[in-house]
Amino acid sequence: MTKLIFMGTPDFSATVLAGLLEQTDYEILAVVTQPDRAVGRKKEIKMTPVKTLALTHGISVYQPEKLSGSQELDDLMALGADGIVTAAFGQFLPEKFLKSVDFAINVHASLLPKYRGGAPIHYAIMNDEKETGVTIMEMVKQMDAGAMISSAKLPITDDDNVGSLFDKLAVIGRDLLLETLPAYIAGDLIPIAQEEDKATFSPNITPQEEKIDWQNSARSIFNQIRGMYPWPVAHTFLNGKRFKIYEAKETIGEGKPGTVIVKTKKELIIATSDGAISLKTVQLAGKPKMSITDFLNGVGRTIEVGDVFGK
């Protein structure tokens, strides 16, 4: 039986961990995940999905704020694991930790060498990619730069957003890992080095990137909105108040960018530099998230054609 340390944090990671736990060939000695955080308006402390799953299986959980130089690192290295499997963990692993096991591999949600970094799914959508996927790679000191062991592709449709792709890729990543691990451990798979000149990066989304620029095209703004849904959520401003746009669609229309060009009881359309955006699910600062119909029949009923978003 192969002894593993699993490292991950969100639902994507939990799906991969659940797959490993169903197998009889692996023993999960410990799980490492990010510390519990305060979430939501009420700032309630919430366990990560990986921690929740691990505890239901009686697995020891480690949550160092920073793994490097921690007591937790020493404890993990003393467990005698054969290998490390990571999936959306969110921290760099110290080189001595990587060298303490026979192998260390990562389940990464992109087709490497494209989109190394912490937000590969977000950027794939925002950049209007037509496909994405999962790559199983060896871990090295440099971020997501290890040799590739296996990969699987998935088309991106206009109906996809970050949430839907995370769910799809989690299942693909789980299945690919379970298919890959036995042959890799047996030495039957030869990893392939990444082509460095083709590497692109997907750092964590910045607050500035969340802000909509109505001077962009409708296609670009549509991709930005779905590339940030359900998190961190794209926003604009309305009469000086932050206005989040969770869901929208491209449509036909002309006007000064940011200007309301159509308003009915069920529809609000805003012009861009090329085409227009029809809002579907929104949230004005201080108000709950709601459908555009509920918004227009409530707090948004004073909006008129000619009003400008972004100010």
Description:
This protein is of the alpha/beta class and 311 residues long. It has two domains: 2-198, Formyl transferase, N-terminal domain (Rossmann fold, 3-Layer(aba) Sandwich), CATH 3.40.50.170; 207-302, Methionyl-tRNA Fmet Formyltransferase, Chain A, domain 2, CATH 3.10.25. Helices cover 26% and strands 27% of the residues. The protein contains nine helices and 15 strands. The chain has helices at residues 11-21, 49-56, 71-77, 95-99, 120-126, 162-185, 207-210, 218-226, 292-296, and strands at residues 2-8, 26-32, 37-39, 44-46, 60-62, 83-87, 103-108, 131-138, 148-155, 234-238, 241-251, 260-263, 268-271, 276-284, 290-291. It has a seven-stranded mixed β-sheet. Helix 1 (11-21) runs parallel beside helix 2 and helix 1 (11-21) runs parallel beside helix 6 (162-185). The protein is elongated, with a radius of gyration of 22 Å. The model has no long low-confidence stretch (mean pLDDT 96). Keywords: Protein biosynthesis, Transferase. It comes from Streptococcus pacificus. Residues 204-299 form the Formyl transferase C-terminal domain. (6S)-5,6,7,8-tetrahydrofolate binds at residues 110-113. GO terms for molecular function: methionyl-tRNA formyltransferase activity.
Overall residue-averaged pLDDT value: 96
Overall tally of structural domains: 2
**Envelope shape:** elongated
Gyration radius over CA: 22 Å
CATH topology descriptor of the largest domain: Rossmann fold
Tell me the major beta sheet.
7 strands, mixed
Main sheet: which strands, in order across? 5-2-1-6-7-8-9
The H-and-E topology, N to C, reads as EHEEEHEHEHEHEEHHHEEEEEEH
In total, the number of strands is: 15
The poorly predicted ranges are: none
Summed up, the helix count is 9
Q: Which range best describes the helical content: under 10%, 10-25%, 25-40%, 40-55%, 55-70% or over 70%?
A: 25-40%
The CATH architecture of the largest domain: 3-Layer(aba) Sandwich
End-to-end distance, in Å?
Answer: 61 Å
Question: Which CATH first-tier class of the largest domain would you pick?
Answer: Alpha Beta
